[in-house]
Write a structure and sequence with these properties.
The protein has about 230 residues and is α/β, with parallel strands linked by helices. It is built from 6 helices and 8 strands. It has a single domain, classed as Alpha/Beta hydrolase fold, catalytic domain (Rossmann fold), CATH 3.40.50. The two termini are about 20 Å apart.
Length: about 230
Amino acid sequence: MSPFARPDITPVTRSITLPAGGTVLHADLDLPKGRAAGLVVFAHGSGSSRRSPRNRAVAAHLRTAPLATLLLDLLTEDEDAEEAAGGVLRFDVARLAERLVAALEWTRDEPTLRGTKAGLFGASTGAAAALVAAASKPTWVGAVVSRGGRPDLAGPALAAVRTPTLLIVGGDDPEVLELNRRAMEAMPAAVDLEVVPGASHLFEEPGALDEVARLARGFFGRHLLPRWP
C-alpha cells in the first residue's frame, strides 16, 4: 500500500517569518499531534518553493514518524521575481546555505521544538545547500536526505560533511546519478545511495515519490528519533 494512503497525523500548522542575514524568510511549520520527537527542515530546489507538492507530500509522510516539518522559501519574493526573469540566485549555494543555517538557528530557539534533533531534506540545488549547512553546523544537524539532488554543487564543503547522508536518485536520471556517485567519494560522512528504478529526475512516475518518502522516513527515524522500530 502507498505510504500516502495512510492517514496523516493532523498537524498544527503555523505560518512564520524568520530573520536571515538582513532579510526575512517565509516558512510553514507543521507539528504532529503531541510533542514532536524530531524536526526536518526542507530546502527546495531551483524553480520551487515551500509550496512544492512533492516536498509537501514527503513532509506529510514524515509527520507520521512523528517528525515536525519546516518548509521554507530560501528566496524572497523579489528574488523569486528576479529568478523568473532569468536570474541565477538558485545556484548561489553559499547564500542558500546561510539562510538554511538561519532557519536552523530559529528552530533552536523555538519553544515547541526545543530539544529536538534536526535533519535536512534537500532537493536539486537545495541538497547542496543542505550539505554546506551540515558541514558548517555538524552538531546541529543529525541527518541529511537528498532527493534528485546536486550534492556536487556543495564544492569543497563536501570534504567537511560528517553528518549521515542519504542520496536518493532516480534510475532514469543518469547524469545526476553520476554526479551523486562522485560526490560520495568526496564525503567522509557515512553516505548511502538509493536508486529508485524507473524514476526520472522529478520522481513523477507512479510509486516513485512513495518510495522517496519511505526511504526518507526510515533514514530520519533512525538518526533523529530516540526510539525507532
